[in-house]
Amino acid sequence: MSKRIGIIVGSLRENSFNQMIANTIPELLDSAQYELISIANLPLYNADLDLGDGPDTVKHYREAIQKTDGILIISPEYNSGIPGVLKNALDWASTPTKTAVLIHKPAGVIGATPGAKGTILSQQQIRQTLDATQSYVMPAQKLYISQITDKIDLTTQKLTDATTRKYVQRYVQTFLQWIDQVNLLKE
């Protein structure tokens, strides 16, 4: 049975480079099923709204994560950190505290940026947040994609650089193995 991978993109921009990475993943490795989990319509986190299942958009978002075997977060870096919209989405997925959908969920983090340094600081903050939610973040494996504008095709909205495509493919393969390791821990 193939694994079901949820992909959360930490950018809402129409021509998001990180969305282009997400668009490319299914064609790089077809041994899993992929589902884009949108964070565009989530309200700002407010504990006053977090009653029962929460607002409908939150309920559907949490259900989408729950149905996956693992989540890949693909995110830019804004002002040396995590995009606010992504932090908000992770906050919604971290409650209710004892039954949150991120508890023991395998997670991986990828990031792309036009700059030369990649998304190092953003990924550190994303990992820190995922650790706090008790997610099982894939250790040691990091994928920082710099100078992304030279590696994508705006027409197809996909990653075209052959070397970077190999890195992304290898990362996703390793992530699928990570899910298997996490499942052994749960038994």
Automatic annotation (TrEMBL):
This is NADPH-dependent FMN reductase. Residues 4-149 form the NADPH-dependent FMN reductase-like domain. InterPro entries: Flavoprotein-like_sf (IPR029039), FMN_Rdtase-like_dom (IPR005025), NAD(P)H-dep_reductase (IPR050712). GO terms for cellular component: cytosol. GO terms for molecular function: FMN binding; oxidoreductase activity. Belongs to the azoreductase type 2 family. It comes from the Bacteria.
